[in-house]
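quick one, 511 residues, struct below
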Amino acid sequence: MRNAMKLLAAGLIFFSILIFASEESQAPRLRAERDGLALTPPMGWYPWNTFGQEPQNEKLIKEMVEALIRSGMREAGYLYIGPDEGICYYRGKDGKLSTNLERYPGGLRGLGDYIHKQGLKYALYTDAGTLTCSKAMPGTRGHEFEDMRQFAEWRCDYLKIDWCHTQGQDIIQTYTLLAEAQRAAGRPLVHSLCSWGVGEPWKWAAAVGHLWRTTGDICKPGKASWTRALEIVFANEKLFAYAGPGHWNDPDMMIVGMPGLSEAQNRSLFSLWSMMAAPLIAGNDLRQMSESTRQILTNIEVIAIDQDPLGIQGRIIRKEGQVSIWGQKKLFDGSQAVLVFNQNNSPSEVTISWDEFGFNRTDVLYVRDLWRHQTSGPIAQGLTVTVPPNDVIMLRLSRSKDFPLPPIISADTYLISLRSKSFRPEILSASLTIHNAGTVDLPLWKLHGSLPPWLSVKIIKKGKNQIVNNQINTAGLSKGYYHVIVRLDNTEPISRRPMSAFYYDVELEIE
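---
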């Protein structure tokens, strides 16, 4: 999209500039080639699996934000959070969406600003039909462009789009129209297509979205099912060829940590999601999770398998009865991820050979146990493991004894908000810090596109982290409100695969 500058007069002057890549005459094959988003599987939290429609409200979402940060999940890469299907907006007589202020007294824009200031990104929900699935909120049908403008005004970063009440609609045309409407609205966001596998979205949705549901729901609200989760795992596994950077198979939000699952089952599901390069969207009550659940959800070595920049979805290479051996997941450093999953109710012993995982049978390898955090080796030919019931052994195999972790990014804020008095020019400064939980160092992030003359950005390294300094010069600016979305790119990490684009908002009010 060309750099856009819009000046509105409505009491105050409103200024907005959006910085994106130039659009080509023909749309890219992958949507992510345009916006740079979701080049690794999205991570975050949504309320539906635990709460359903009730009691979603502003208080609940803010409590979950606080719990997510307190647990260490933000630093582990969990980014997107917000309301799922609930009663958070309605359509007014003017045809526009408006916040349900009884549930969200600070407004949906206010909630988004709060989330951004906490170093997280804002997720919302809508439907491609006339109504949402529960019929509690309006869908986008017939209002695609005005609704996408409203989500942009609320500063949404991740939008889940359901497929209820869509009688007579062509699924490809509908989701394509919504993607066009979102681009016209001007705010970059991750599009999560939620058609439950209807229309086989894995065959076409990469051009219009970043992830797509491959199956029906994983559970009814508050009722986790181990059996249902495994049905979804094995259905999603078959679609490995369709996943990759910017386009992901989504087996639904996780049920890790929900009542009714054992620690072994939680560990197994988290490992399976990570092995499949699936979006890691938690669905448990973060305020009340056990320490074992917290440790599972923040295991950075397992998360690194999911977030590997090569974006390969692992798959089953062999089965021995109720034991499945997963591989074909090469990682950025040349190592291989291996998962042995035991569905039996008793321990199972399995022997694996190096040549099953892309090595020579005669190779001598080092083995990293990702749950025990232990390295063994060098070991020749293969090894035998004993897997507890309903549990996994998850390994990395490498010719090197070093097991580097790819970049896993978080930030302390995604909103720089400043005020100034109009009667004198000022130089205002504010910074944000980009954190890296991985062990691999990153080159400097670089500005994508140009900036308005009143803003300058300088990026410096501080250890593994990077400081983004923003300086605003108000000289020559009139009284009003100014806004810019800044995009940073990191296209030269050691994996030679670009990082997901880093977007943040800068706003200035001159009184």
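Residues 1-27 have pLDDT under 50 and may be disordered.
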